[in-house]
Write a sequence for this structure.
């Protein structure tokens, strides 16, 4: 009889068989069916197995071996589904409505017990499968060709059985079982982490022990192996669970469960180590913990499962620091398997990404604390280099800026300080300035809309707070000095003094060249043109360096005019630094202003020296020239000075006249033209029961000196006596009223108040130098502000603007600007910037001469 192949069952051959043969097959199949039920049910003995083997032989002889395999596997499947799967899932029915915290410790025992039972059931079914494999093998041993394929068929048969077993369990899988596995591995890994932390603590304490304690521990007084045994036992328990899960086809589910538990534990560890402490680097501690806990666990787990360590060189081609850690106690170098290397890469990437997300979420606070938080910035830089998720930083930080900084409630000074800190911090993360360009754009746009931006920038550059809002810079250092010092240190590292400047700069540019990152905006210029220059970026907010220089010139003039001595060392240093950045031509007027004070000091010394040599006696009520210190200005080089009429008392006026005459004698043919409303006056007021000292403006001094003649004045008479408007008098006299020197009362004449000198009153004890009230300071400005100067200069263009809007109806800012540049070419030609024009138009809108709607300017109707 012809034998069919082992993988085929041609039932059509039955038509060619004789009745006796068919009867034999029928009887063999009935016997086969009966013996299969006995074997699967566990009620058969050795005689049943022999009968089963004979029936298998008879069926295979007629080419029905595939029928034998299929029926037997189907019988095993039904039996396993009835006894094995249902019993296994029944263990977890009680936990279907519970969440993770409610599982309790008993779930660990339940899981281990269920896996043990299902493993025993699986082993029994595999034993049954071995019976049919043995029977088939006995038949195939008679055929030389079939004997060669017997091992392959055996593997295939067991593979089909395992697939059947896994699919049976999967089709009846409860929804909450993956959560149970996740919770189990999470609890076990947390326990393992605690053991590791305890071992580290004991190791650190052991390092601190003295020699006697270490000797006692070696003599057995301390159990140094206790932690390792606990660790090994725990890993073995986990490994047994993983092995059992693998055996029932849950390999992927088991790996997902302990992988998610590992990542969850790693995330918690990163949060614990990072926290809100930005002054300490945590990346090294995180990587060390990864090496100590998860990787050690995985290595031990895979070792227990038999697939972790290989000797020699791995075929994966992946490199890892783990591969360079030989064990001294072994003759061979132990290298990690491909699985361990991949796990290390996955864990490190997840740690970098988690820490990166934490730092990006708190980047606003980190930058506020910069440079104290430079460690956190360095960690973030390394994370971004590893993950490449710079765009996430840009989007998140811009959102934080718009929500927390770029609001009406934040002062311009705070915004500028945060902007400078942002530049410094992001320069450390991204030296190319690509992402700084994107982050800084909304800040610059917002600051351009604030009127006091220029003034705050100049103040921040020239004050002594080092560019920090809390004044934490080096004492006496301005932000300008700090920036210049940083630039100098960056430009001059590693070069000799005799190195040619052009060659030096070319070498610096060549050595620092890098291609633009892929995220770079091509419209912003290449890396070689982009310079992360803090001062340049601040000037970019204003629009031009001329505006910044003009604002500084006004501020410098105000400082110089309010000085009561000639100490200008700080101002000279600042001007020299500005000359380095803006050029000597831009700072020429400021230099002349400083030279005016230097010349004033010399002239003042000469005049006083000449006066002391003449020795002329002073008349009654006359004042000595020694009481006067003058500041002589070159008016053409100073900003416009506020000039108000003021009549000074006779002795003061004579003192100024004598000083001017002496100046004319020394500096013939030059003459002095006094600005009587400018300067400061030191006064000491003597009362019946007190003496008070003040440093005030000449106008305030002129007011109070009038009360030497009579004790009471009306506002009209007093204003006429000192030559100022009544409105100005009422504003200035409030200073003396607030100090308790004058008392105000209602006069008999309408709109005229009466001011009376308070001769005798119990004072609060203020007899030291008093300064002007803060509310009066703004009204006492000696120099016209840049805004006032701009408004005065732009007034001549107001008619042009009104005419354009009358003809064209409405116009955008850029169109107005371009039209003025095109047609206003005669003297004076239009040379203002777009920001200056916008400031002027905003003033016209506030004066209700224009309207601004939807980005367009139009005449007020």
């Amino acid at each position: 009889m012809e034998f069919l192949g082992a993988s085929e069952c041609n039932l059509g051959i039955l038509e060619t068989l004789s009745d006796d043969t068919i009867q034999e097959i029928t009887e063999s199949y009935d016997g086969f069916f009966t013996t299969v039920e006995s074997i699967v049910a566990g009620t058969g003995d050795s005689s049943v197995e022999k009968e089963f083997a004979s029936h298998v032989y008879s069926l295979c002889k007629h080419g029905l071996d595939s029928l034998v395999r299929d029926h037997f596997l189907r019988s095993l499947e039904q039996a396993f589904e009835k006894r094995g799967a249902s019993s296994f899932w029944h263990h977890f029915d009680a936990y279907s409505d519970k969440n993770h915290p409610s599982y309790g410790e008993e779930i660990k025992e339940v899981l281990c017990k269920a896996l043990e039972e299902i493993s025993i059931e699986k082993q029994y079914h595999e034993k049954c499968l071995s019976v049919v494999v043995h029977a088939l093998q006995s038949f195939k041993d008679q055929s030389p060709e079939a004997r060669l394929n017997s091992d392959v068929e055996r593997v295939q048969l067991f593979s089909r059985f395992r697939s059947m077993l896994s699919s049976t369990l999967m089709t009846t899988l409860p929804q909450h079982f993956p959560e149970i596995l996740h919770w189990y591995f999470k609890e076990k890994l947390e326990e393992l982490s605690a053991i590791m932390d305890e071992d580290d603590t004991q190791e650190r304490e052991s390092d601190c022990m003295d020699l006697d304690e270490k000797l006692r521990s070696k003599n057995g007084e301390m159990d140094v192996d206790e932690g390792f045994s606990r660790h090994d036992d725990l890993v073995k328990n986990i490994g047994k669970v993983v092995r059992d899960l693998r055996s029932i086809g849950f390999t992927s589910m088991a790996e997902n469960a302990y992988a998610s538990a590992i990542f969850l534990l790693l995330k918690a560890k990163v949060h614990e180590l990072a926290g809100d402490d930005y002054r300490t680097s945590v990346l090294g501690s995180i990587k060390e913990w990864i090496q100590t806990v998860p990787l050690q666990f995985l290595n031990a787990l895979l070792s227990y499962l038999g697939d972790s360590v290989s000797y020699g060189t791995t075929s994966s081609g992946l490199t890892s620091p783990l591969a360079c850690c030989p064990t001294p106690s072994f003759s061979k170098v132990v290298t990690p398997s491909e699985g361990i290397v991949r796990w290390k890469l996955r864990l490190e990437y997840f740690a970098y990404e988690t820490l990166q997300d934490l730092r990006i979420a708190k980047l606003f606070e980190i930058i506020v604390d910069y440079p104290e938080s430079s460690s956190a910035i360095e960690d973030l830089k390394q994370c971004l280099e590893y993950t490449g998720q710079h765009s996430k930083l840009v989007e998140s930080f811009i959102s934080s800026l718009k929500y927390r900084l770029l609001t009406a409630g934040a002062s311009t000074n705070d915004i500028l300080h945060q902007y400078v800190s942002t530049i410094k911090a992001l320069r450390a993360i991204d030296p190319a300035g690509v992402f700084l360009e994107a982050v800084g754009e909304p800040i610059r746009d917002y600051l351009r809309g604030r009127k006091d931006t220029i003034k705050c920038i100049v103040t921040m550059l020239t004050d002594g707070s080092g560019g920090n809002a809390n004044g934490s810079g080096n004492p006496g250092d301005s932000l300008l000095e700090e920036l210049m010092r940083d630039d100098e240190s960056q430009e001059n590292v590693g070069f000799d003094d005799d190195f040619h400047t052009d060659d030096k700069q070319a070498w610096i540019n060549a050595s620092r060249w890098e291609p633009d990152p892929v995220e770079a905006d091509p419209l912003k210029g290449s890396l070689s043109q982009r310079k992360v220059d803090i001062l340049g970026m601040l000037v970019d907010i204003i629009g031009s360096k001329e505006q910044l220089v003009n604002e500084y010139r006004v501020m410098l003039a105000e400082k110089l005019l309010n000085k009561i001595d000639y100490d200008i060392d700080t101002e000279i240093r600042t001007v020299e630094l500005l000359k380095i950045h803006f050029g000597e031509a831009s700072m020429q007027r400021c230099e002349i202003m400083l030279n005016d004070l230097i010349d004033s000091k010399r002239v003042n010394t000469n005049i006083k020296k000449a006066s002391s040599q003449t020795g002329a006696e002073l008349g009654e009520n006359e004042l000595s020239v020694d009481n006067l210190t003058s500041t002589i200005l070159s008016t053409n080089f100073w900003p416009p000075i506020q000039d108000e009429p003021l009549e000074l008392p006779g002795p003061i006026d004579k003192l100024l006249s004598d000083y001017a005459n002496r100046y004319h004698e020394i500096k013939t043919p030059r003459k002095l033209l006094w600005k009587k409303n400018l300067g400061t006056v030191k006064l000491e007021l003597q009362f019946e029961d007190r003496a008070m000292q003040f440093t005030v403006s000449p106008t305030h001094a002129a007011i109070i000196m009038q009360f030497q003649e009579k004790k009471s004045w009306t506002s009209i008479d007093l204003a006429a006596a000192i030559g100022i408007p009544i409105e100005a008098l009422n504003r200035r006299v409030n200073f003396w009223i607030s100090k308790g020197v004058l008392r105000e009362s209602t006069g008999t004449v309408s709109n005229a108040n009466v001011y009376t000198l308070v001769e005798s009153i119990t004072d609060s004890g203020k007899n030291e130098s008093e300064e002007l009230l803060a509310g009066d300071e703004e009204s006492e400005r000696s120099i016209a502000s840049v805004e006032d100067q701009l408004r005065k200069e732009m007034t001549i263009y107001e008619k042009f603007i009104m005419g354009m809007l009358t003809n064209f109806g409405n116009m955008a800012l850029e169109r107005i600007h371009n039209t003025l540049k095109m047609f206003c070419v005669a003297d004076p030609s239009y040379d203002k910037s777009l920001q200056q024009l916008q400031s002027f138009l905003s003033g016209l809108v506030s004066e209700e001469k224009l309207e601004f709607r939807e980005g367009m300017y139009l005449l007020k109707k």
Observations:
- The two ends are 115 Å apart (CA to CA).
- The longest strand covers residues 681-686.
- The chain has a mean pLDDT of 74.
- The first helix runs from residue 19 to 41.
